[in-house]
Amino acid sequence: MRKWVGVLLALLVIGVAIIWGALYAQSTADFMGHDRQPIAFSHQRHAGELQIDCLFCHRGARISPVASVPSVYLCMTCHRSLKEQTPETEKLLAYWNDKEPIPWVRLQRLPDFVQFTHEMHLDAGFQCADCHGEVERMSQTPRAATFEMGWCIDCHERNGASLDCFTCHY
Amino acid sequence: MDLKRRDFLKVVGLGAAGSMLPGCGGETAKLIPYVLPDEEIVPGVANWYASVCRECEAGCGIIVRVMEGRARKIEGNPDHPLNRGKLCALGQASLQGLYNPDRIRGPLQRDGERGEGRFKPIPWEEAMSRWVSALQKHPGGAVLISRPVPGTLAGLFSTFMKEISGTVFFYEPSAERPLRAANRKSFGIDFLPDYDLANTTYLLSFGAPFLSHWLSPVHFGAAYGRMRQGRPEVRGRFVQVEPRLSLTAASADRWVPIRPGTEGLLAVAIGRLILEEGRTNLPRGDRSRFEKFYASFSIDRIANETGVAEEEIVRLAREFYTAASPLAIGGGIASEQTNGTDTLVAINALNLLVGNINRPGGIRFFRPSDFPASSAEVVGEQALLDLKGPSKKASRSVLMLYQANPLYTLPPSTQFRQVFEEADLVVSFSPFLDESTAMADLILPDHFFLESWGDHVTEGIAPAAGLAQPVVIPRYDTRPVGDLFLGAANRFGGGVKERLSWTDYRTMVREQWRDFFDRRQPGQPFEAAWVEALQKGGWWKPEGKPVSISQRGAPSAAEPARFEGSEKEFPFYFYPFPSMGLHYGQGANRPWLQELPDPMTTVVWGSWVEINPKTAQEYGLAERDLVRVISPYGEIEAPVVYFPGNPPDLISVPIGQGHRAYGRYAEGRGVNPLALLAPLIDAPSGALATGATRVRIERTGRKGRPVLVDQTGQGTRRHTEGGEGEA
User: Which of A103, A131, A167, B132 has its CA 20 to 30 A from that of B150?
Assistant: First the structure.
């Protein structure tokens, strides 16, 4: 009897540790977020099937620290001329007609004390997929990497980039 | 399964621990895209706009970092000749004015009795008609009290008030009126000169607080840096003569303590020595007038009256006249006495004696730029007090306020409140609900300066005019004060409409600049010049030739200062000084400025009383004890801070706290030492003599809780103690 309880407790402890560890590894990841977008936008459809270049929509990446989400106007440049609507594109049209921005849920987020710039990494010849994964094969966009300091430092070491604290923390 | 109580608790405990795991609920961050992208905005990339800082009267050039339509950071404009890229704490904190939660968000009308401070919204149209019809009902009686706004706005205010036969007063407690009056007497010049600190080799300052709040502190701070460390061959020397060890005195090579109100006498003694020892460059014709005046003074008597030893006076005089480029300036406590103007005339005389006028390192006179309608002649407190005089100009009429707060900056002993009580209608255009605005019947709030067009003509340096542009979209339902006055002129019709026919204030500013550029650079396309001025932050030109002066006024009087309160009953001199961050109270609603430690005592977020430790101990006052400071006109209570830089017979208290209105960060915090002051005026300039009231102190037996930054382990508190000043 006592033994069973011991086993049960051990299992509980191990289970808790696993869950804890998994959550810790996720750290800042908002992993509940990706299926809660206001519109079920699919990268698979746009970047994969339609072969739209990442930078066509994420225009900031070349010229700004942030990649930026496309304006509703940019979505409409194509969607205005589509004949067939789905329930999801109807939502987009509703936002556009109401002149309301789409309240996308933010998936990639760095803490305030980190300065990251897309512009420099693109200048250095990186592809979007190097960090963000092959989103053209994902119907829902998860967070591809942990984007934690160790992960950044690894890559900086591999590529001989600066390891000075002030590179990212200023 | 037989679960024992202990095991059960273990399981429950684990469950509880599990519940403390990082949750995955909570608020998710949103990414909000533009609906329509703005062509000029790249998300994540800042735009910098040049403008003009309006947090004090100096008018430094600023550049504002704006991202996605939000102002994020303010820095000095590197091109502007006044501040050359530097900016003080007030300018840095002006963002907290823009984002202040207590800003007035739309037009308001009084709800309840006047002065109760209760207001209810009113539509703009209705507010405008109420204001204009009140003006029409009171022809000739309207009064506008405005902060100095040298530039297009001053022209607009002056023209408007002239056309409706009203009066405009440009009033600001820090305007250094005595200095202007003294310069008129000494040099016959109406505008402020440039004190060329950067090239001075010996600076003799009589109380001028040029490192904290004198005329243009950023300009002088940078010039002082160049004077001390900018020249490889010489480090300028600096001596400060001042009763108390102010921040500026603490930076000097030598501090010469002196009895308050006798600074002018010391200047007379130094002048006399310069003449006696034949070291003057004065033309012969002028010399006799100076000699005649100095003849009636003896050095030993002056040493006795000032408390400065005779050998020290001789030393100062020799240092001064043997320096390659000496400069004497005066201000602060020296000018805030009943003999302030005379004191400054005696100090100016030293510059005339050594002939440093229009020489590098001396006093240089540059005519301000010939910007149209830019004059904003600043009045002293006397002019405001005359409003309740026998002429009763303002009574039963319309009293208007633009960013002036006389109910806070004028001591209650002046009874200025009467003017408010007798007015038929009080209208305020301030963006914040300060003490005077709280007495208004009608509030038509102006934009904050970062949301408005405007310009600012700089005085004292080479000609410069700053151009201010809005850097953000207005946050609330406010309107630029320029638009309000143009709108009122339009409703008025007649002469005022003809003179002020612009549709809106932006157009008026543009047209003024067009005239200005047409006269400066005829034939140049205006549009290009205008865009360049917007980019650069204004118009300025390199130093031209200074204006020569014809008048060399000798001092005519060196009366000792008068003080209110008998020495027997009120044994202490009292000096309320503008605090570094809050100035004359304008900064009190900016938490960053509240948090700025006073440079000498490190106190934050409250008031304190500076007492010489020996004096305090005689009264049995420990540091932090609440002490009552009593003048013939009122009393305040604040905690004691030992301040060895005060002479034993002087009490000093910073100005800026003790607000009864002005928002959540300012209200009910600390005390306002101006409440103690006697209504004494320096006659020639009409400025209030803030250093002329005597006080006594009493123990209260209670402890205060001032927050000093250098006392580790003392956390900041929400409230510092200290009662209201009862007047």
Answer: B132
Q: Note the pLDDT tens digit of each residue in A33-49.
A: 445 788 988 888 899 89
Q: What share of chain B is helix, strand, coil (3-state, %, to 5)?
A: 30, 20, 50
Residues 6+ apart with CB under 8 A from B656: B578, B579, B581, B582, B583, B584, B585, B587, B588, B670
User: Where do the H-state alpha helices sit in B521-666?
Assistant: 526-536, 591-594, 613-618
Task: Answer yes or no: are the C-beta atoms of B430 and B104 closer than 8 Å.
Answer: yes
Q: Which two tokens stand for residue B724?
A: 């209201």
B541-586 residue pLDDT tens: 877 788 888 888 888 888 888 999 899 999 999 999 999 889 999 9
Instruction: For A12-22, write each residue's pLDDT tens digit.
Output: 888 888 887 66
Residue A144 maps to a domain: yes
User: Positive or negative CA dihedral for A7, A10, A12, A15?
Assistant: negative
Question: Which segments of B537-624 does DSSP mark as H helices, in order?
Answer: 591-594, 613-618
Domain count, chain A: 1
Phi (first) and psi of residue B566, to 5 degrees: -75, 150
Closest Cα in chain B, distance from residue A103 (Å): 5
d(CA B137, CA B619): 58
B39: closest chain A residue by CA: A71
Residue range of the domain that includes A130: 43-69+104-167
Query: Does residue A131 lie in a domain region?
Result: yes
Q: How many Cα atoms are found within 13 Å in the side-chain-facing hemisphere of A105?
A: 21
* Domain-located, residue A110: yes
Residue A148 counted as domain residue = yes
DSSP at B375: -
Task: Give me the tens of pLDDT residue by residue for chain A, a chain 170 residues long.
Answer: 677 888 888 888 888 888 876 665 554 444 444 457 889 888 888 998 999 999 999 988 998 998 888 999 999 999 988 888 899 899 999 999 999 999 988 888 888 899 999 999 999 999 998 888 888 888 777 666 778 899 999 999 999 999 999 999 98
Query: Are B29 and A106 inside 8 Å of each other by CB?
Result: yes
Q: Rounded to an integer, what distance in angstroms lies between the CA atom of residue B59 and that of residue B63?
A: 13
pLDDT for A22: 65
CB B575 within 8 A of CB B260: yes
Q: Does the pLDDT at position B196 exceed 80?
A: yes
Residue A161's pLDDT is what?
92
Provide the shortest C-alpha distance from residue A48 to chain B (in Å): 23
From residue B395, alpha-carbon distances to A68, B15, B135, B391, B422 in Å are 60, 76, 13, 9, 5
Give which of B460, B465, B452 is closest to B217, Cα–Cα: B460
Query: Would you call A151 an interface residue with chain B, using a CB distance cutoff of 8 Å?
Result: no
pLDDT at B311: 93
Q: Give contacts of A 14-43 with B, CB under 8 A.
A: 16, 19-20, 23-24, 30-33, 36
- What chain B holds in terms of domains, given with CATH numbers, is 108-173+374-450+478-519 (3.40.50.740), 194-364 (3.40.228.10), 572-708 (2.40.40.20)
Mean pLDDT of chain B: 88
- pTM value is 0.84
Residue B13 with chain A: CB contacts under 8 Å: none
Contacts with B454 (C-beta within 8 Å, 6 or more apart), sequence order: B52, B54, B149, B151, B152, B153, B467, B468, B482, B509
Of the pLDDT bands very low, low, confident and very high (cuts 50, 70, 90), residue B27 is low
